[in-house]
Amino acid sequence: MTDRRWRRSFSGFSILIGIPVNLALQPNCLKHGLPNVLERLDRIVRPIAVPNLTMFIIVGQVLMFLASLNDNTLPGRAMLVWDLVLAGEVWRLLTFFFVPFTSDPIFLIFAYLIFYMMGNALEAYWGVVRYNVFLWLGAVLTIAAAGIVREQAFSAGFLQGTVFLAFATINPDFELRLFFVLPVKVKWLAMIQVAGYLLAMFGGNWAVTLMVLASVGNYLVFFGPWLLGRVRNTARKAKWERQQLDIASTPRHRCTTCGVDSNVDPKMEFRYCSQCDGEHAYCMTHLRDHQHVSGQ
Question: Domains (ranges, CATH) in the chain?
């Protein structure tokens, strides 16, 4: 994927939501995923891959939102509840994907603009099939998680958030302008989103915890090995830096008699005694006034 094709994914929306097109792609993160798993999933999804899937999801949610203005029970009848699916309401296996994650129309407009922009960018970068794999894998994991607590209602709100996480991982330095003024890199917003997911996991009920875990499952399949490699590299770098600090803090010379070293007194001159066994340094005060060290 060239930078030019990536940039075309943002045309028309950068002005609307105040986003400067300033990209610094990091495609290498995708080379450290689970290639065998993803290639197999590609073969499975390819026959049913939906081009422009992001717009398909947005249109479905907008229609659901408009319909719910006349019937506010509609979103509840579209949520995924396995007990009701087993009772014959099999449409819930698909319609839960089209339940809007909020009833605030203003927030939905901006959220859909960002979702469309980033979703289309990922589809242009990965290709139609791989982007479909990303979202449908999350949907399948959510359906499976809903089967654990069959009486609880599940939606795809957390799953859509992983599109933002994926985009932020690939291009962490991309800037959004909050309130059309304040530039903020998406990596910081992604960290806030992860913190929100953690709060939802530990502060919500068991169903919410499962929804979060299932929704980020697709992200971990795509980026987990790469993130683990980053953690290992960071740990190795930190260990090396500690070793360098230890080396730097170790004095080059230390007087065998009084213990003064080159760190305590950098101006002190040290000499090594040729009559002592081994390497024994002495300050100028004790160079000629010390007991020779013998190996015997």
Answer: 3-235 (1.20.1540.10), 252-296 (no CATH)
